[in-house]
């Protein structure tokens, strides 16, 4: 069951809204065994990489594409650093409509572009930034029957807020702290909205890269957050705090999550854990770290950040000599 059917009474959908789904939502909440001890808290990872296209985007995309079809759109369009492209393309294919994806030339992980191309999207590389690509998408949507499905589409936020509901359901209580990556800011707004609808307010940490425009964490490589105004309002209201972390801290956190917990996420997902190391946490508090995308989304990072493989003879002696007795 996808998010539309599971949360129909809490989403802006009606009898004429298609029940579009690829099985999104219901992602695991995994208790950390080792990093909890290091941080002195009860730490959980909400692994959104378990969604159908490997990222949190699927929650909102199911709702956005379904509503676009309901409203008569003949196709969808989005700008993307990767995950939005993969998700939009998949849900468009599922709905039987064309998808156009624009992304900055050379600035998208190959696996994410492959996902969009494999399901039939028209993928265009823009000579410019993500922000320029997004503006072009907005203009296209305004002059055609294509619906914009970036997070500026409020139905995306509606679908993504369901993750906040799930965290509470899975924990059986409200977390004291929730940390997540801050790229465009849409997911920060979605979690804030979801918690507000539950009438709760955990400490919400939005973690951003220190060098947004060039960070190794490609999924949050956005110099001008589309939801900057809303995030600033949440900050002013005391509902969100932004923590800025350098790329070396993101790298260290990514390696820790993989090697100490066995969870393979993309580098941008690790920025939340990196931020937690920079703030003061109440001892024994309950902390949730949102891992927004699967590690297979950006395998190039593995080649850069981990040791290369070693070729050995097919003998026990040679293997033991390499790995140690």
Would you summarize the structure shown here?
The protein has 325 residues and is of the alpha/beta class.
Structural features, described:
This protein is α/β, with parallel strands linked by helices and 325 residues long. It folds into 2 domains: 3-55 and 155-305, Rossmann fold, CATH 3.40.50; 57-152, Rossmann fold (3-Layer(aba) Sandwich). Helices cover 40% and strands 16% of the residues. It has 14 helices and 10 strands. The chain has helices at 3-6, 35-39, 57-70, 83-95, 110-118, 130-142, 154-160, 162-171, 186-197, 228-236, 247-261, 271-276, 300-305, 316-323; strands spanning 29-31, 42-47, 75-79, 99-104, 122-126, 146-148, 177-181, 203-209, 241-245, 286-291. It has a 6-stranded mixed sheet. Strands 5-4-3-6 form a 4-stranded parallel sheet, with helices on both faces. Helix 5 links the parallel strand 4 (99-104) and strand 5 (122-126). Helix 3 (57-70) packs across helix 7, helix 4 packs parallel to helix 5 (110-118) and helix 8 (162-171) packs across helix 9 (186-197). The longest helix has 15 residues, at 247-261. It is globular and about 65 Å long. The model has no long low-confidence stretch (mean pLDDT 94).
List the helices and strands and how they pair.
Blueprint: H1 3-6, E1 29-31, H2 35-39, E2 42-47, H3 57-70, E3 75-79, H4 83-95, E4 99-104, H5 110-118, E5 122-126, H6 130-142, E6 146-148, H7 154-160, H8 162-171, E7 177-181, H9 186-197, E8 203-209, H10 228-236, E9 241-245, H11 247-261, H12 271-276, E10 286-291, H13 300-305, H14 316-323
Parallel strand pairs: 2-10, 3-4, 3-6, 4-5, 7-8, 7-10, 8-9
Antiparallel strand pairs: 1-2
Helix pairs in contact: 3-4, 3-7, 4-5, 7-9, 8-9
